[in-house]
Amino acid sequence: MALEALAGTAITEATQATRDAVLAVSDLHKSYGEREVVRGLSFSIARGECYGLLGPNGAGKTTTLRLCLGLIEAARGSIDLLGHAIPRDARRARLRVGVVPQMDNLDPDFTASENLLVYGRYFGIDDATIRARIPQLLDFAGLSGRADERIQTLSGGMKRRLTMARALVNDPDIIFMDEPTTGLDPQARHLIWERLRPW
């Protein structure tokens, strides 16, 4: 089953709302061989809005995120991310984006705070600025007392929360999250969503 445009979200023309959107997707198509996984998907997301893609495993949700980030190319359709055409200007757009991948990919050789520091450098942020942000990010993740602990010593839920905090290191304009609360207990889930709202 391909991920398709949901009722009420299809973009049929370039409206003012679409021009002001942080992400605008129109008539997106993607296939892998004979299998069409994204079929005519259109939607736009305004600043401050939370938007979810729902569907069973294999429906094309992760593929859609990868298309929007310019990591793979669509067969047809257009994507505008923060005023940048994707995939052409994807690298520039991603400097202003936070990403929580489906699987945690923290560096096991580093501590919790070192993971945040090194990741921030990928965005060209100077060390002093990143170090000033680290306490707030660790607090967001509920890991203030774990700054100097290596990744191997953290539980699965702690790693997931750190991965979410890492997505905020560059103070992004938009955050992409692929199954962000997988492995979190209900209390941690609730806490993360509450802390993301005002971020």
Please name the defining characteristics of this protein.
single chain, about 200 residues, alpha/beta, Rossmann fold, two-stranded parallel ribbon, 7 helices, 7 strands, about 20% strand
Description:
The longest helix has 14 residues, at 127-140. The chain has 199 residues and is an alpha/beta fold. The chain has helices at 16-19, 61-68, 90-94, 112-121, 127-140, 156-166, 186-196, and strands spanning 3-4, 23-32, 35-45, 76-81, 84-86, 97-100, 174-177. It is built from seven helices and seven strands. Mean pLDDT is 88; it is low at 5-17. The chain has two domains: 3-94, 3-Layer(aba) Sandwich (Rossmann fold); 112-196, P-loop containing nucleotide triphosphate hydrolases (Rossmann fold, 3-Layer(aba) Sandwich). Helix 4 crosses helix 5 (127-140). The strands form two sheets. The protein has a five-stranded mixed beta sheet with strand order 1-3-2-4-5. A hairpin with a 2-residue loop joins strand 4 and strand 5.
